[in-house]
Amino acid sequence: MAARDRLKDDLVRAIPSLRAFALSLCGNAERADDLVQETLMKAWANLTSFVEGTNLSAWLFTILRNAFYSDFRKRRREIEDADGQMAGRLASMPAQNGHMDLQDFRAALMQLPPSQREVLILIGGSGMSYEEVAAICNCAVGTVKSRVNRARNRLAQILSVNSVDEFGPDAVVQATVEPTLVSSRN
Amino acid sequence: MERFIERSLHDAYAATLREKVPERFTELLNQLKASKGGDDGRSR
Fold this sequence. Notes:
- The complex is a heterodimer.
- Chain A has one domain (about 5-185): Butyryl-CoA Dehydrogenase, subunit A, domain 3.
- In chain A, about 75% of the residues lie in helices and about 0% in strands.
- Chain A contains ten helices and no strands.
- Chain B has helices spanning about 1-15, 25-35.
- Chains A and B meet through α1, α2, α5, α6 and α8 of A and α1 and α2 of B.
């Protein structure tokens, strides 16, 4: 198989992760896909800067992140999709009670600064290591850890809950089978 | 609460991963591969 064919296959495999990262960063489905397209074009145009044997995903994430911040600076004054409605539309939500939970969570995520959001999604969503994320974000590992910690704490504040039991299907079930438990909270 | 956040992060990410890759991206890569732009993949 030609090198270009192999690379194309590698890039195709990376697209879902790139879309997930892009959506987490900008919270807007249309802009997320535009970011992914820009990333693919830049990657293809700069293949010589990719070192064989290194992490292709990390390289692509770095390109996408740089494109996002460049775009972010241009759009800073635009109204953000803070309620996460478009992000919610892009995702294939499960047809069950968890639907609103995920949308609420996405909306809360979008209230974080991009610098906290990106590390949180790379660590918690994509499963990258702190070291990999530090390389992508061009900062120290300690900075990544600090941002993740602040992001988690801020998310907890935004979601304004005291217990995981107050979320989602569990809460619905509890309200159904244990009405006294719910009324005692109010 | 921490577990809820971790699970939600994973779920939010995974929901997008499960989506079908839009045709525009595969078409784009086919166009790029067919074009003379970029290098010839020697770095790989």
